[in-house]
């Protein structure tokens, strides 16, 4: 989809401050996916990291937490599995349902037409 995989990094254990790690990565990585571990980020800190990501053309995706300056928010839930026998076997596929809060049939980013 256009991302240079040589400019992608994995930090499996970012320590107690994943936002600081994400802030460092947005300066040199095309895509940053950060898990907040259920934490909330303050609006001022989120604005600063989001601005750096925009300035550098980095896609910043946040999961497992609240990021108040989000451009696009989607909720997902597992709707079912296929290929599993009677309590055994391998899953062939997983079906997920995506929704945007308050408008479950549509997702849009900030600054875009509905």
Task: Describe the structure concisely for a colleague.
The chain has 114 residues and is α+β, with helices and mostly antiparallel strands.
Q: Overview of this structure, please?
A:
By secondary structure, the protein is of the alpha+beta class. It is built from two helices and four strands; from the N terminus they run αβαβββ. Helices cover about 20% and strands about 30% of the residues. The strands form two sheets. The protein has a two-stranded parallel ribbon. About 15% of the residues are buried. The model is unreliable at about 100-110 (pLDDT under 50).
Sheet with the most strands? 2 strands, parallel
Cα distance, first to last residue?
Answer: 24 Å
In total, how many beta strands?
Answer: 4
Helix content: 10-25%
Order of helices and strands: HEHEEE
Question: So what's the overall shape?
Answer: elongated
| Overall mean confidence score, pLDDT | 76
What portion of residues belong to β-strands? 25-35%
Query: Which strand order spans the largest sheet, edge to edge or round the barrel?
Result: 1-2
- Unreliable stretches covering 5 or more consecutive residues: 102-108
Mind telling me the C-alpha Rg? 17 Å
Structural class: alpha+beta
What is the number of helices?
Answer: 2
């Amino acid at each position: 989809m256009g991302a240079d995989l040589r400019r992608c990094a994995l930090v499996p254990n970012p320590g107690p401050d994943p936002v600081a790690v994400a802030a460092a990565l947005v300066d040199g990585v095309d895509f940053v996916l950060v898990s907040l571990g259920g934490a909330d980020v303050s609006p001022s800190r989120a604005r600063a990291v989001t601005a750096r990501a925009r300035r550098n053309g980095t896609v910043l995706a946040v999961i497992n937490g609240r990021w108040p300056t989000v451009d696009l928010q989607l909720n997902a839930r597992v709707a079912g599995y296929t290929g599993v026998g009677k309590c055994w076997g391998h899953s062939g596929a997983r079906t997920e349902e995506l929704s945007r809060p308050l408008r479950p049939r549509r997702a849009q980013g900030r600054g875009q037409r509905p």
